[in-house]
Amino acid sequence: MEVPVTGFMFNSDDSDPLHTHQLFITDWDGRQVHVHEFRGVTSFDDGHHHQYAGTTEPAQTGVPHTHWYFTFTSVDDGHQHEIRGVTGPAIPIPGGGHYHEFRGMTTLSGAHPHSHHYSGNTSQEF
What we know:
This is YmaF family protein. This protein is mostly beta strands. The protein has no helices and 12 strands.
């Protein structure tokens, strides 16, 4: 089964040793989609915190929806954690658009295995 998809890709600069590309899907099977950026700082646990940032997976525009998200934290105290989950439902913004709340716990990691809490709001849709 083929699903028509349209979108665009951004190349990262070659200074990143992981050399990644960002793919932005704008239309999936004839339905317009959108994404949100998210970022924040984890709770302070085991003597440190971590920063994180990412972009949600696409979701359909104009209907009740949530977004999956995934990223890695910054490397602090010699380790990093995974952050993944599903946002809450869309929260309308007066004048148009919306954002989502997100929260959870990181994966366990570190010389003394531990996790961190995180929470925040996504950017407005784009």
